[in-house]
Specification:
Layout lengths: L2 E8 L3 H16 L4 E9 L5 H11 L3 E3 L2 H6 L5 E4 L6 H10 L3 E4 L7 H14 L3 E3 L7 H11 L6 E9 L20 H4 L3 H17 L2 E9 L4 E3 L6 E3 L5 E8 L4 E7 L8 E8 L2 E6 L5 E6 L16 E5 L20 H16 L9 H20 L3 E2 L3
Parallel strand pairs: 1-2, 1-4, 2-3, 4-5, 5-6, 7-12
Antiparallel strand pairs: 7-13, 8-11, 8-17, 9-10, 11-12, 13-14, 14-15, 15-16
């Protein structure tokens, strides 16, 4: 007999849809004790018709326009935060105080100071919590983690990450409002650093360990845009592009780049890692494929015979690959939405005695520290040590 777990999703935009779908699907594909119930969706009171349409589309029991009322409800177990970044801090503090489990979208907060308070709140309350850095649950990236743990990469030398898009190139694209709040620093906190590079940083630190120092440069290519809320042309204060160098605690070197001005790139999220025994390369736009170069055996250290060396393209869809036994037959791929389902499956499993879920808010705090250091370095024009 399954145990109902009542879910409240705050925010009915793009991420609200992704999370709603995952909560609905997780019990269909993973054997779990808990069965999520979509209890209430919370969105803007400015468009009640749209909010009700969202409720009907995903099958929520009810709707609400005030998130504080949602947190006060006795029939809600999980507060799933899919609202703009500037609201994360207050909601997490209130949810933790009410004893609710917390699911929070990335980036965790507007800055490290907020993030520290959020971590302290959930840990004091002792509530289960997670941050949806969902790319950890791409089977190919999870397979990279497995290869690293098996010693197939060996001593790491280089880590390279890019996350490029092109949707804000036109100067006619406005800032602000429900659709383009990511271009408004008062709401988003930062531009590509918090929105895109936060993903790259989380993945890098999961695979390659802590980043210790960074030096960065940011650029805002379109300096002014019309603001949706005011109707006036206002300065743009987020970063359109960011590049930074990093050194890791293990002695390896890292390069990170992100932009929304890479014409033709829609969600080009790549990573490459080079080590003593091998290398890996991954591109999110081909999420089922992993390129692996094997140079030496991880146990014996013996070099692979010369006529067998070379890049191997692995189709990560077999039952032995991470998560794939829960989905389709080998050769049938899964996509973006499945990474959230995999995430929620692991979170629910952790509530049932399974492995501790990562990343928690505390783990996301370490990513926030790197993001803040990157922005600080870009202002100073010099290396910045990562605190904490």
């Amino acid at each position: 007999m399954s145990t109902p777990l009542n879910i409240a999703v705050l925010g009915c935009g793009f991420m609200g849809r992704a999370h709603s779908n995952a909560w609905l699907q997780v019990s269909h594909f993973f054997t779990l004790q808990h069965k999520p119930v979509l209890k209430v969706c919370c969105g803007s009171s400015n468009d009640p018709a749209k909010l009700n349409k969202f409720r009907e589309a995903w099958g929520y029991d009810s709707v609400e326009s005030d998130w504080k009322k949602v947190i006060d409800r006795k029939d809600v177990d999980v507060i799933d935060i899919c609202v703009p970044n500037h609201l994360h801090h207050e909601i997490v503090l209130a949810a933790a105080k009410a004893g609710k489990m917390v699911v929070c979208e990335k980036p965790l907060a507007m800055n490290v100071a907020e993030a520290e308070e959020m971590v302290a709140a959930v840990e004091k309350a002792g509530v289960a919590n997670m941050v949806t850095f969902n790319y950890r649950r791409v089977p190919a990236i999870a397979l990279i983690k497995q290869l690293i743990d098996e010693g197939r990469i060996g001593r790491p030398y280089h880590y390279r990450a890019t996350y490029n898009q092109d949707y804000t190139i036109s100067p006619e694209v406005p800032q602000g409002g429900r659709a383009l709040w990511r271009l408004d620093a008062k709401v988003a906190g930062s531009g590509v650093t918090g929105d895109l590079l936060a993903h790259s940083i989380d993945t890098a630190q999961w695979l390659n360990g802590p980043i210790r120092r960074v030096v960065a440069h940011t650029e805002t290519f379109v300096k002014e845009r019309k603001h949706v809320d005011s109707g006036k042309v206002e300065p743009v204060t987020i970063d359109d592009a960011c590049m930074f160098l990093a050194t890791f605690a293990n002695g390896s070197m890292g390069t990170f780049e992100s932009t929304r001005y890479a014409r033709g790139r829609k969600n080009y999220n790549t990573l490459e890692m080079n080590g003593e025994n091998g290398s890996v390369f991954f591109n999110l736009e081909d999420p089922h494929l992993l390129d692996f170069f094997r140079y030496a055996d991880p146990i014996s250290g013996k070099k692979v015979e010369d006529h067998l060396t070379g890049w191997q393209e692995i189709n990560v869809t077999n039952f032995e690959h991470p998560y794939m036994k829960n989905w389709w037959v080998p050769g049938c791929t899964i996509g973006y939405e499945h990474t959230f389902t995999n995430s929620f499956a692991d979170f629910l499993s952790s509530l049932e005695g399974g492995p501790k879920f990562e990343p928690t808010l505390r783990t996301a705090l370490s990513t926030q520290r790197v993001c803040d250091a990157v922005l600080e370095s870009a202002k100073k024009g010099s290396w910045v040590e990562i605190g904490g």
